[in-house]
Design brief:
Layout (H helix, E strand, L loop, with lengths): L3 E6 L4 H9 L5 E7 L3 H10 L4 E2 L3 H6 L5 E4 L6 H10 L3 E4 L7 H14 L3 E3 L7 H11 L6 E11 L13 H4 L3 H4 L2 H11 L2 E9 L10 E8 L4 E7 L1 E13 L2 E4 L13 E4 L2 H12 L7 H15 L7 H20 L3 E2 L16
Parallel strand pairs: 1-2, 1-4, 2-3, 4-5, 5-6, 7-10
Antiparallel strand pairs: 7-11, 8-9, 8-14, 9-10, 11-12, 12-13
Helix pairs in contact: 4-5, 5-12, 9-12
């Protein structure tokens, strides 16, 4: 089968996407690119041996030789570009956040259905080997009921990070550390445990002089009855990311590498020697697939060729946005907020202030 032809827009995180596609040459070929400037577009094409450049996004979408448009632009451009690419008859790969409101994500879900094409949000951390081992243990019925989960995203961002004019602003970044940084860690929580039932939260802008939040402490009750805490800051001199899941039968703890915590090594501690033996037996049979972007694109190819469910869906992105909406609402009200968020909710049209 001929590789799917991919057009990339954006060359920040887009470069990591290109590198991942190029590790799967039998599945994908990046054949066109466009960025915010002619020079950057030319440099990116040369760096990655991409044969075609497009003057702008309209030109990229108009190419009839592209199967997929991969969107890696500033946050506020994600939705209009995704809608345009679907209307042009392309599959879409879309960086997070896919949109700035539940209403807009619902528009995108409808546009995907109307187009007959597939739209896949990026949540590449789902595919780390450590996390996939936990999913294997869960699928084997070994975890038991969840009790408590702690999620930490403790990173460092200095003023130079916000030198890009779209960062740190509600209109263009559409939020702060919750939207751009911790969104992956919080997606993992729901990926393992399912929906959130209610949230309470305190958030501040404490580290840098920006419009949006950069420090957050939240307490959650999950729909399964377990509790969870979220801790987020851009002011940690030692950067770590960490998940710790306390189940009835075992405790699972990630490594603390800030940008690769879903990968090995993870620790799995059974509550009894007998349970530990069962854990060890499942892990001995674990077959690793590719990780991160490569892992997500590998599974994306399987979905396109076999007609199966996408590895990450717009429904997953909606669940992530629903949590964001509830967190911002709870912080402003200084009270608990319950989920789901319905269309009559005041923040259904967007969590940005005003």
């Amino acid at each position: 089968m001929k590789p799917f032809s991919v057009g990339i827009v954006g060359a920040g995180i887009g470069k990591e996407h290109i590198q991942a596609y190029q590790q799967l040459p039998e599945m994908f070929a990046v054949t066109a690119v466009t960025t915010a400037s002619v020079q950057e577009t030319q440099d990116t094409a040369q760096q990655f041996s991409i044969p075609h450049i497009a003057a702008d996004f309209d030109t990229l979408c108009a190419r009839d030789d592209l199967d997929i448009i991969n969107i890696c632009t500033p946050n506020h451009l994600h939705l209009p570009m995704a809608l345009q690419a679907l209307a042009a008859g392309k599959h879409v790969v879309l960086e997070k956040p896919v949109a700035g409101s539940l209403a807009d994500i619902d528009r995108l879900i409808q546009a995907e259905a109307d187009s007959g094409k597939r739209a896949m949000p990026i949540f590449q951390y789902r595919f780390g080997h450590g996390l996939q081992k936990l999913k294997a243990l869960q699928a084997a019925g070994l975890t038991g009921q969840a009790h408590l989960t702690t999620v930490e995203t403790l990173w460092r961002r200095r003023p130079d990070y916000y030198a890009r004019p779209w960062r740190g602003k509600w209109d263009t970044e559409m939020g702060g550390a919750l939207v751009t940084l911790a969104i992956h860690a919080h997606d993992i929580l729901s990926y393992v445990l399912g929906p959130v039932k209610n949230v309470t939260v305190r958030m501040k802008t404490a580290v840098n002089p920006i419009e949006t939040e950069d420090t957050v402490a939240a307490a959650l009750e999950m729909a399964d009855g377990s509790l969870a805490t979220l801790a987020v800051t851009t002011g940690s001199s030692r950067e770590i990311s960490r998940h710790r899941f306390c189940f009835a039968n075992l405790t699972a703890e990630s490594n603390t590498t800030p940008y690769n915590s879903s990968s090995d090594p993870w620790q799995f501690h059974g509550d009894t020697p007998e349970i530990q033996a069962q854990i060890d037996a499942v892990l001995a049979e674990f077959v690793p697939l590719p990780e991160r972007f490569v892992g997500q694109f590998y599974r994306f190819h399987q979905s396109l060729t076999q007609g199966t469910n996408l590895p990450v869906t717009l429904a997953d992105a909606r669940q992530s946005a629903e949590l964001l909406t509830a967190l911002y609402d709870a912080a402003r009200k200084e009270t608990a907020v319950s989920l789901p968020i319905t269309p009559d909710h005041p923040l259904y049209q967007g969590w940005q202030p005003g």
